[in-house]
Structure formats: structure tokens, C-alpha cells
Amino acid sequence: MLQGFKCEAFCSSPCPSRPGSDWYLVRVELIVTDVNDNAPEWTMVPFPYLAVVSPEAPPGSLVYKLHAHDGDEGGNGEVEYFLSDGWAAAAPATVSVVAGARPPQFSNSSFTISIPESTPEGQPFLVAPAMSFQKHPLSYSLLINPSSLFSIQPETGQVSLTRAVDFESDQHRYLLLVRASESQDALSSAAEVRVIITDENDCVPEFLQSIYSKDGVAETVTTATSLLQVSASDCDSDLNAELTYHTLSPDFSVSAHGTIFPARPLDYERPNHLYEFVVMAVDKGEVPRTGTTTVRVRMSNVNDEAPEFSQHIYRTFVSEDAGPNTLVATVLAKDPDGDGITYKIASGNEEGNFVIDSQKGLIRLRSSPPPRLQGLEYVLNVTATDDNASGGPHPLSSVARVIVGVDDVNNNKPVFEKCQEYRERSSVLENQPPGTSVLQVQ
């Protein structure tokens, strides 16, 4: 109990006794005095209070020892005992005294105990002790023993199981009646024992199916779309049977109720067009147990990817005098969705010198009329368009550039542009020395 304490207080007002100071210190000591606010409480055991006395006991013989405790201090905590005449300031204790022999008394009038279902057979889980007023040895037995599930040690009163119990299949509450007997005087008494079997987290969550499958999931499915439902059960009870679901797959998520959702965009273009992952069901036991199942999601194709050329830019050369049908270049594209592809020269072929095989991607010079190549190079923009066989809003296409360089050929002879003028103006005087300039031609 708190009897006293000290504290220090500061004051910010001007202190008359200390001119010029704007604070001063006051030390206060408080002493708490006790108040008689606690009533005495009886501390004897067992209850009820029973006693025996020999019919031949002389005056002054001890019959029963009373004891009470008062929580107050000093004189307020001192206890006096007296026999009540019907009125008392505190609750009286009633002592039943019998002159002669009296049956044994248990430490409690009834016992209640909870034991886990994992309690081993033969291991004592309760002692139901009794006392003999005659100081005679006692023998314990079970008057009520449901299904002979329990046994008791005759000498000690220790109660144990005769077999293992299972919370999931056995009943959960049992009522026993224990008897304590004095063989010498044939005196006995009985006490009730209530045994409650509690659940242990001994069941592993089990899924209804070892494999869950979902086929034909479009790769355009959104993360808000539920794909399928998994479900598990646990034969335990309460928190031991409450389950949560989890997966380590980065591609999928699972709700608290076992609904599977995509966690990000899915792709048809993966091995076997299949996602396979594990879902776990975990109970909420103190030591959680886990069950697992396999989930397989098979994708269906959607035309969501354009064809891809083997190169973004193709470079090639062709002679300027190349004839009709000369092979110039080959372009190649593949469609990730597996669709068919059609090739087309989209631009750069305004003179029509080039043609392309729409299925094979072969670029040649035209057959008729004969091609006429001019300039240093041609830049052809070639498109690859899928046939949308995998299904989609519309066909998809991509573009590659084909740069065709034109090689020059020596197929033109020199030509004098002013031949007639040279003929008319060319003359030289006689007797000119060697090296004299006559005429400059080009």
C-alpha cells in the first residue's frame, strides 16, 4: 500500500523572499494514512467448513482452526474472532461439527478440467483428493464412467484415460462421479468431475480436388475476372479449422475464399499454352497446418501480337541492267499468334520496278515491261499483315524497310557533243611547230 511520497513544485510567480527571482522551489511531503475499508476474508480450505470431535473429547480440545485475512494496515488489519449470535459486521463462516465419525471430504465439491485430445492414454490429468476426518486410508473409485473411457488410481485419486480420444469423432464433454471410501468405517463421499475435450490442430486442410483445371481462358482476360474456385476443408474446429488461401505464382492471385484471379496480363505464347501453379490452404492454428492443390489454366489464343520481321532493315544491291524477274531480296516475318502472313510493298515502288510474292516474301524485278532502274538506291517499305485466324478485333501488321542499292554498269560510249562545230572551226597554219594547239574538244 502507498504510505507516503515526496514531490517538488516550481512556481513562476515573483518570490517576495527572493527579490529579483521569477521562480522558487517548494518541496512537499505527503503521507497517506490507512482507512479501514477492507473487510476480513476467510482463507480456510476446503469448503464447506467441516469438523469432527470425539464424544469423549475433554474441554479445550481443538475442533477447528479458523483463519481470516484483512487487507488494511496496522490495527485496521488485525482480526478478532467470536461466535456470532446472528449479526456480524463481516460475512460469518459456518463450521459444521459432528461428534463422532464423518465421511471423507473432497478438496472441491466438484471439479472441471479441460484436456487436449492429444492427452496420452494412462497419463494422469487430474487428482481428486479427499481427506479423512478419522485419519484413515482412503480408496478412490469411479461411480460414473462414460464408455469406460476413464480410470482412477485407488490409492491416489489420479484420473487418466483408458484410450486415446479424438475431438472430431468422440463427444466433447464427460461427467464422472468419483467416490472416496474409508474401508474401515464404510464411510464414503462423492464428487462430480466434468472433463472437457479440447481440439488440437491435428488435421491437415484437404482440397476437394487434387487438381483444378480451367481451359479456354482468353489471353486478353483482365485481372478482375474470376477464373475458378478452389475449396478445402479442415476437420478441426474453431481457429484450427479456419482457412486462408495463398499462392506463390506471380501470374495469379487467390482470394480469402479461394477464388483465382489473374495477377497480371496472361499470354497464350508460352510452353503448351499452359499455366500450372500450386495453391495452399493454411489454417489459423497456433502451429498452422497446410494443404496444397495444383491449378492448371490453359490459354486460348487471341490475335494480340503483330507479325515480327527477322530484320527491321534489309540491305541489298542490284545491277542497273538486271533483267526481268531478277531476285532482289527475301523478307521473312513470323506471327507470335501463329496466324498466316501476307506481304505487300506499301511505298517506295512508285515506278513499279519491283514486285513481291505475297506469301513467300520474295522481291523481284518486274517481268513486263522490262524494269528501268534509275538513281543510286530504292527504299521499299514492306508490310507483313496477319490473317487474324486466332481471332481479334482486326488484322495486325508490321513494317520493314528494304534498301536496294543500284550498281552502275559501263554500258554507255563517249559522245562528242559539238562534233559539227569542231569540223567547221578546226584549222592550222602551215609550218607550225610541234605542240601547237589546234582545237579543244569535249
From TrEMBL:
Q: Name one GO molecular function term.
A: calcium ion binding
Where is each Cadherin domain found?
A: 45-207, 217-309, 310-416
Keywords for this protein: Calcium, Cell adhesion, Membrane, Repeat, Transmembrane, Transmembrane helix
Which InterPro entries did the record assign?
Answer: Cadherin-domain_protein (IPR050971), Cadherin-like_dom (IPR002126), Cadherin-like_sf (IPR015919), Cadherin_CS (IPR020894)
The reply on keyword Ubl conjugation is: no
A Pfam family cross-referenced in the UniProt record is Cadherin
SMART domains registered for this protein in UniProt: CA
The protein's superkingdom reads Eukaryota
Q: In the UniProt record, does the keyword Calcium occur?
A: yes
Any one GO biological process:
anatomical structure morphogenesis
Annotated transmembrane regions:
none
Localization of this protein = Membrane
Q: Which GO terms describe its cellular component?
A: cell-cell junction; plasma membrane
Give the protein's recorded name. Answer: Cadherin domain-containing protein
What is the organism of origin for this protein? Anguilla anguilla
